Amino acid sequence: MEAIQAKDYQVVFGENGYSNLNAILKEKNYSILFVLVDSNTHEHCLAPFLQNIVTQTTIEIIEIDPGEEFKNLETCEGVWNVLSELNADRNSALINLGGGVVTDLGGFVACCFKRGIDFINIPTTLLAMVDASVGGKTGVDLGPLKNQIGIISNPELVLVDTHFLGTLSVEELRSGYAEMLKHGLISSEAYWNTVKQAKYTDFESLAELIRQSIAIKNEVVLEDPFEKNRRKSLNYGHTLGHAIESYFMESDQKERLLHGEAIAIGMILANYLSSELCSLPKSECDVISEAILAFYPSVEFTEKDIESIITLLKYDKKNSHGKVLFVLLNRIGEVVLNQEASNELIYNAFEYYKKLKKN
């Protein structure tokens, strides 16, 4: 599969990708290679990954706990301490082998350690392949607030090996698929129609869709690397989606939602807001929302839940001058940025979601 040229690095695929990786390791001649894993990727992904690596450089493994709740500065401090104890220097490199938590946190760790060492992303989840590992965003959460601390910095390479998808549960695959559905909505009706009809458990056909999804994101990032304008479109469904994810992560009474499950709800809510505030036809809003909902389980929201979620919106990174700003649609492939919505409209959006899931 042909590589994708991003800014200052490539996204490479499969067996050819390992050749690219080994060429970089030889060229750079790193002093020590550190591979960051969580306990899941340590067990399921590390051995096959190392079998494809050709290098004389010492390799050290650093393991962190799995899960969004460990994507924080405390975990970073633990990794920085291990790097120091194992004599990492500025000519070391960090290979992040894992999902979005590992690639986001690992990239941030590398950017800060000794004011910056090289890092390479090897995404092992569908979500990380199409979203987290591409585009240079690194960072961690601040309590339950998503991605509040971080920096934009590009890796030396991103290697996508779809064999790792076989280690995932159906729920994890479905979570990553939400970002692919989003890429369709913000880019083209053709891709949306393809991805909404595909099966995320069919890895053979999924491989090309993954490449297309990465290409869509890469095109946006190349035009607007620091999210001043068009890159905000990648946050479709994320304003409310992130608030929902944070609320469910923080609440003792709620079962955790995976990222994509929350973003799927966020996109349906954004569809409704688009039909009210922009020119997305109501009929098209319904068709799009029903297509998204077909992939994901229904979630109940009480009025108290919605009130708490709206409160969390003030922490969204797209906000400006105290205003909560939404990414909305005029139609598939035509995004409208920096839209405000009243709390009443947001409550109505949740009511729309509630009625939709009963149909």
TrEMBL record:
MF GO annotations: 3-dehydroquinate synthase activity; metal ion binding; nucleotide binding
Classification via SUPFAM superfamilies: Dehydroquinate synthase-like
Cofactor or coenzyme needed: Zn(2+); Co(2+); NAD(+)
Entry keyword set: Cobalt, Lyase, Metal-binding, NAD, Nucleotide-binding, Zinc
Example GO BP: chorismate biosynthetic process
Span of domain 3-dehydroquinate synthase N-terminal: 62-174
Enzyme class: lyase
GO cellular component: cytoplasm
Record-annotated 3-dehydroquinate synthase C-terminal domain positions: 176-319
UniProt superkingdom: Bacteria
Documented EC number(s): 4.2.3.4
InterPro entries per the UniProt record, alphabetical: Dehydroquinate_synthase, DHQ_synth_AroB, DHQ_synth_fam, DHQS/DOIS_N, DHQS_C
PANTHER family, A to Z: 3-DEHYDROQUINATE SYNTHASE
Function, in words: Catalyzes the conversion of 3-deoxy-D-arabino-heptulosonate 7-phosphate (DAHP) to dehydroquinate (DHQ).
Protein name, per record: 3-dehydroquinate synthase
UniProt organism field: Leeuwenhoekiella palythoae
